[in-house]
């Protein structure tokens, strides 16, 4: 490769928002069998309460639309201008691998719940231990260099119910993770420069549902939204 040529950005096959695929993937990496990802069938309180409790994280898959990008640009500019409080206990991973947002979401959900969700010895525990004291950019570099994680992601991405897009196909869907840390709900999106603090909450289910509803309200005619929860195994 010529010295003037930039290194090609790594690309993975997108992960499907499918709990069966996610669980097969993450349990092989070391998540305790007592925890799993499960579909969320609605955001009304009675439907949220059907999920085994306590819910520790939500993963939202949503369309990257013009409305979303316009809102995000304004949101980030506002935070840069006004600032925000971020708990030092929030672990945030930057995404530098194309189509890796599914894995980044899974990692965010588990890295920020290690006090209550056991991770058994294996590739995932090694990654989390290695990256816990690094910067978000350094964590991203570790993800790029983790061949075991990449292989597991690629294998799981091909297991979905729908045809897996190729690595070079343009995908307009994106995962984010919502977690509660030190009394506030955080949106963790590795494509953004920092976590988003959505403010204090006394009910993680209701608070997260309201945040997700706002994503949907920005694209009211789009049906490409799915929500998955990290919860105890039923």
Question: In brief, what are we looking at here?
Answer:
The protein has 234 residues and is of the alpha+beta class. The protein has one domain: Peptidase C12, ubiquitin carboxyl-terminal hydrolase (Ubiquitin C-terminal Hydrolase UCH-l3, 3-Layer(aba) Sandwich).
Helicity level: 25-40%
Uncertain stretches of 5 or more adjacent residues: 1-6, 163-169
What is the CATH architecture annotation?
3-Layer(aba) Sandwich
> For this structure, what is the CATH class?
Alpha Beta
State the fourth-level CATH superfamily.
Answer: Peptidase C12, ubiquitin carboxyl-terminal hydrolase
- Given the C-alpha coordinates, what overall shape results? globular
Determine Rg (CA atoms, Å).
17 Å
């Amino acid at each position: 490769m010529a010295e003037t040529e930039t290194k090609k950005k790594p690309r993975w096959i997108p992960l499907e928002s499918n709990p069966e695929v996610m669980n097969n993937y993450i349990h092989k990496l070391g998540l305790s069998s007592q925890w799993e990802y499960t579909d969320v069938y609605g955001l009304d309180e009675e439907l949220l309460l059907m999920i085994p409790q306590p819910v520790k994280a939500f993963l939202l898959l949503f369309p990257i639309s013009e409305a979303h990008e316009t809102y995000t640009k304004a949101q980030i500019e506002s935070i840069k201008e006004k600032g925000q409080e971020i708990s030092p206990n929030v672990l945030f991973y930057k995404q530098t691998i194309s189509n890796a947002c599914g894995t980044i979401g899974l990692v965010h959900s588990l890295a920020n719940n290690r006090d209550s969700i056991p991770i058994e010895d294996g590739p995932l525990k090694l990654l989390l231990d290695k990256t816990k004291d690094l910067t978000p950019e350094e964590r991203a570099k570790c993800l790029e260099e983790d061949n075991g994680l990449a292989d597991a992601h690629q294998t799981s991405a091909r297991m979905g119910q729908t045809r897996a897009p190729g690595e070079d196909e343009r995908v307009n869907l994106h995962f984010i993770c919502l977690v509660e840390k030190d009394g506030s709900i955080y949106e963790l999106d590795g494509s953004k420069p920092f976590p988003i603090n959505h403010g204090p909450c006394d009910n993680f289910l209701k608070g997260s549902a309201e945040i997700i509803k706002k994503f949907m309200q920005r694209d009211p005619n789009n049906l490409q939204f799915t929500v998955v929860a990290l919860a105890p195994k039923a």
